[in-house]
Design a protein that fits this description.
The complex is a heterodimer of chains A (529) and B (472). Chain A has 529 residues and is an alpha/beta fold. Chain A has eleven helices and 18 strands. The two termini of chain B are 37 Å apart. Classes of the chains: A alpha/beta (529), B mainly alpha (472).
Chain lengths: 529, 472
């Protein structure tokens, strides 16, 4: 007897990962339904919101924070109980959180994926770099990634790495003047400058114009040159996927044989809907995916769902160089210094990435001068001068998975739909803390190398919005949530498309890896349903 | 320039007369030169506009590309020298018959999407070079392209017989007396290989080019191909010869306009490959062509150069903490839509960037046109064009804005940066989204009882045409 389903595959979440999986499946002829908690909002509207916002530093401000689809900067929605205010810039709308990112599109190094066996700390991935490589390539083609083929991205000044089967889809953008000046003066001191592969196109690509250096990647690219999940949400719809907005999934229903039989969603208009499918993909962000599994009581025989939460917790440093370097021209980041991305030191302390932030410096410079009480013509003069000499390093550390760092559904708070809100407990670990003095020593060398004046080193740690570990991947069902295919150990037809599966964080932005895993998963599902 | 043109004429003449005697002469041009010349002519004739690769990087001329004609979808056939799927078994006579008469070797009629009424005038020498190129210079591809199946009555290819009798000439191309040799060369390129009239000449009730209004502007799939006669107001008489040549080569000239839609494709696939002398010749001919003016017009479309300033307050909607308002994208305020959707590139003042990378909306033939269709079509479809100098791209806004919103933003542009006495309605946008107004022939079709009505119509028009010819 043939069973009937509402769709072959239901995808919860229309962000970059869910939309890429949905598009691949729709392209393969599968019927696909995408559930999105938020609404569809056109780019021009987001730009209008952004341009008229008085909260320019709040990258979530141009996006709606609805009582039934909260964003993460809402303290009522995301509560912290640990020593660190864990608060990534999560959005809820069609296209997801990649509406605002800087589009860094790194691949992991082979050693990042064998951390335990190489350096004796953390966990290994259950799949190898070679397993993932073809999907990295496809993900780069999907996102329109620009990059330099012949550089050692491990930062060791060796041969090109990690290995690639094909060149980058697009050539890298030119180096900004600031990048050139820092490289010219600091590389003689032994620092290896690495261009950051990124999904800001350098020529028209897949309906997107070339990046024109609006320097506005966050809160939103005004022209759509930077990749966002909206690209593949649109592609998925054109390929036949059905996208439902204002549809918050709140329950995955278990059936016979350990399979998931249905997903239940709720809308703000009132009303619950149950949809059945042959396979389910939860692609609802690193925090919300874990929450949905926990409130549905699925996939958690290991008791690891929501645990092992990792971010690349970071620190920042600003200084004034002795020459104008003109930050703010071009994209908001372009790479940085990678000497400590890999090496034996990872046995003892975290890998370190020093990114050079390239934001227009006027707001930060002006705020600092006003705090110092500088006013009048002197204020104007110094804003002009210091904005040209401002150098801002944004440094990130590798984090290890710990069961105590976790996200959970809130014990009592509910959103407007009656669904539990989020609670996070997060402490920065000793592996990161041991790396901090090393990074700070680098900072002082940078300042000295530029004959500069140190402005500040951030006192605590900063969010980097890289969600990992919450539905951790592993070979052993007893200590992990999904296998190397992102299939939950407990339910053969439930897959998770989120960077939350990543078991070893490395020190680079994980989105490209998430998309590569999502495409790989879609290939597997397409063969099975 | 003249030397080059004369050389081309001499070469053509040499080829023309040398061909029958090939066996006896030892200094005939090498076959590869003939292939190269044919390849250039195929570019000039823009064969690849329709016989293009279906997927980027796919084989050339293998067919399968679907041309959305008002009468239905026409599938470009495989014209590679494949003996099974293409034209590999065609003799020169077969090739020439298709090119000049619109007939396949089996006698079946081609549809005039194939511009054989224009190709008819191609010189024998050029025709030979084209044939040589398609037989020897194109990779054979053994994939049969899908068949074109137009709805009744257009599915009956025989209906093209009376149409051909009416609208196809057998007279070889003859350059107009009184034109410079350069303009004569241009006339040849425009009227035969370039088949510019396919778009730029208005079509009559039976979808044939109205020769009395040659190059005076036509409508193609929602786009308006403008008047390119030498008239200084309605045509391109106000453009310098070098501006026209630059436009054809690059697809844009600051202070005049940019190529989008079909013209963008013509630049991309054909014109950017043409030699400077040939582009200069086309420009010389267009400027010298018979001016046709729309009497209602008093100012060229690129000459609306006085923007009406917009107060910044029109663009500033203020901060809001109302989350419902943050998510509400229903506005039809043209200034707000312009600020969010367009100003990042074209500027709040509509002046684009100083280097012209983002073109100005002030003093542009698109925003100053009597017919605002191209403005709407550009917003709907964007621009994607490779010129000889650079690639130009504008994203499509079709899925980001409703019909009413596109009308509102177009009207904001017209009122402040372009031609303020023109306006766009949501209905017009809806129409253009669906490929533009339907030709009268299609609108009348339900009223005609099939082929019988068509024959009567053809007869009536033939009579009128003969009468008009008699008294002209």
């Amino acid at each position: 007897m043939a069973e009937t389903f509402d769709a072959d595959v239901i995808v919860v979440g229309s962000g970059a990962l869910g939309s890429n999986a949905a598009y691949e499946l729709a392209k393969a002829g599968k019927s696909v339904i995408i559930l999105e908690a938020g609404e569809r909002i056109p780019r021009w509207k987001i730009i209008q919101n952004s341009r008229n916002s008085s909260r320019r530093g709040d990258f979530n401000a141009p996006y709606p924070d609805m009582p039934w689809a909260h964003t993460s900067y809402d303290n009522d929605y995301l509560e912290n109980t640990g020593s660190f205010d864990f608060r990534p810039g999560m959005l809820k709308l069609v296209g997801g959180t990649t509406w605002h990112w800087a589009a860094a599109a790194w691949r992991y190094l082979p050693t990042d994926m064998t951390l335990k066996s190489t350096y004796g700390v953390g966990r290994d991935w259950p799949i190898s770099y070679d397993d993932l490589e073809p999907y990295y390539q496809r993900a780069e083609e999907a996102l329109g990634v620009v990059g330099v083929d012949a550089q050692d991205q491990s930062g060791q000044n060796g041969p090109a790495s990690p290995p690639r089967s094909k060149p980058y889809p697009l050539p890298a953008e030119g180096k900004t003047y600031m990048f050139q000046r820092l490289e010219a003066r600091l590389s003689p001191l032994g620092f290896h400058f690495i261009h950051e592969p990124n999904a800001r196109t350098t020529r028209p690509y897949d309906g997107r114009p070339a990046c024109a250096g609006n320097n506005n990647c966050m809160p939103a690219c005004p022209i759509g040159a930077m990749y966002s999940g909206i690209v593949h949400a649109d592609h998925a719809e054109k390929a036949g996927a059905k996208l439902l907005t204002d549809a918050t999934a709140y329950k995955l229903e278990k059936g016979a044989g350990g399979k998931i039989v249905a997903v239940h969603y709720r809308t703000s208009k009132g009303g619950d809907v149950r949809l059945t499918a042959r396979a389910f993909i939860v692609a609802a962000h690193g925090l919300e995916t874990a929450k949905l599994l926990l409130i549905s009581d699925v996939a958690n025989s290991s008791d690891q769902v929501g645990r092992n939460l990792m971010d690349h917790s970071g620190i920042g440093m600003q200084f004034l160089a002795d020459e104008p370097v003109w930050p703010g021209r071009g994209a908001v980041q372009q790479g940085g210094i990678f000497n400590r991305r890999d090496g034996e030191h990872r046995r003892d302390y975290a890998a370190v990435k020093h990114s050079i932030a390239n934001n227009v410096a006027n707001p930060a410079v002006a705020a600092r001068l006003l705090e110092q009480g500088v006013l009048g013509p002197e204020l104007d003069r110094r804003i002009r001068d210091e904005s040209s000499r401002w150098v801002d390093f944004s440094t990130t550390f590798e984090m290890l998975p710990h069961a105590t760092n976790r996200v959970q559904p809130h014990s009592s708070k509910r959103d407007a739909l009656g669904i539990p809100t989020l609670t996070v407990h997060y402490d920065v670990d000793d592996y990161v803390k041991a790396a901090r003095p090393i990074a700070e020593a680098d900072f002082h060398t940078f300042v000295k190398g530029m004959n500069g004046t140190l402005v500040a080193i951030s006192p605590g740690y900063q969010n980097r919005d890289h969600l990992m570990g919450t539905v951790i991947m592993g070979a052993d069902p007893k200590d992990s949530v999904v296998d190397g295919d992102c299939r939950t150990h407990d339910h053969p037809n439930l897959f998770l498309a989120t960077t939350g599966v990543i078991p070893a964080s490395g020190v680079i932005n994980p989105t490209l890896t998430g998309v590569a895993l999502a495409i790989r998963m879609a290939d597997i599902i397409a063969r099975e349903v | 320039m003249r030397i080059v043109t004369n050389a081309a004429v001499a070469l053509s003449a040499a080829l023309l007369f040398a061909l029958p005697a090939q066996a006896q002469t030892s200094d005939k041009p090498p076959a590869n030169a003939e292939v190269a010349r044919g390849q250039y002519l195929a570019k000039a004739a823009d064969c690849g506009a329709c016989h293009r690769e279906v997927h980027s990087g796919g084989p050339a001329y293998a067919g399968g590309y679907v041309i959305a004609s008002p009468m239905g979808d026409i599938v470009a056939p495989n014209i590679t020298p494949s003996k099974t799927a293409g034209i590999g078994t065609w003799s020169f006579v077969d090739f020439e018959r298709a090119m000049r008469k619109g007939e396949r070797p089996d006698g079946a009629k081609l549809y005039p999407a194939m511009p054989y009424t224009d190709y008819q005038g191609i010189t024998d020498a050029d025709m030979h070079a084209l044939y040589t190129y398609f037989m020897q210079g194109v990779q054979p591809v053994d994939t049969v392209a899908p068949k074109t199946q137009l709805p009744f009555p257009f599915g009956i290819r025989l209906i093209m017989a009376p149409w051909n009798w009416l609208f196809r000439s057998n007279t070889p191309f003859k350059a107009s007396a009184g034109l410079s040799p350069q303009a004569q060369r241009g006339e040849y390129l425009v009227q035969t290989l370039g088949h510019c009239g396919s778009c730029h000449t208005p079509r009559n009730l039976l979808m044939a080019e109205t020769q009395s209004k040659a190059l005076a502007g036509g409508d193609v799939g929602g786009w308006h191909a403008p008047n390119i006669t030498g008239d200084p107001i309605s045509g391109v008489g106000g453009w310098s010869q070098s501006e026209i040549a630059t436009y054809l080569r690059n697809g844009h000239v600051s202070g005049k306009g940019v190529a989008a839609g079909g013209m963008g494709e013509a630049v991309d696939h054909s014109l950017r490959y043409m030699t400077d002398p040939d582009l200069a010749a086309i420009a010389a001919y267009l400027k010298a062509s018979k001016p046709i003016r729309d009497p209602a017009e008093s100012k060229p479309d690129f000459a609306w150069t006085d923007p009406r300033p917009v107060p910044l307050s029109a663009y500033e909607t203020g901060d809001t903490h109302d989350q419902a308002a943050v998510g509400d994208s229903s506005t039809t305020d043209g200034a707000v839509l312009y600020a969010g959707g367009c100003a990042s590139c074209h500027g709040l003042d509509g002046k684009g960037t100083k280097d012209g990378f983002y073109p100005p909306l002030v003093g542009s033939s698109t925003t100053g046109a009597a017919n605002p269709a191209n403005l709407v079509m550009t917003i709907l479809n964007g621009v994607s064009r490779q010129g000889a100098d650079a690639r130009s791209f504008m994203p499509s806004f079709a899925s980001q804005m409703s019909d009413a919103q596109i009308a509102a933003v177009a009207n904001h542009v017209l009122v402040h940066f372009g031609r303020p006495d023109r306006s766009v309605s949501a209905n017009m946008v809806a129409d253009l989204r669906n490929g533009g107004p339907k030709p009268l022939l299609l609108k009348l079709m339900p009223w005609m009882f099939g082929i019988g009505g068509l024959i009567i119509l053809v007869g009536a028009i033939a009579a009128a045409r003969r009468l008009r010819a008699r008294y002209a």
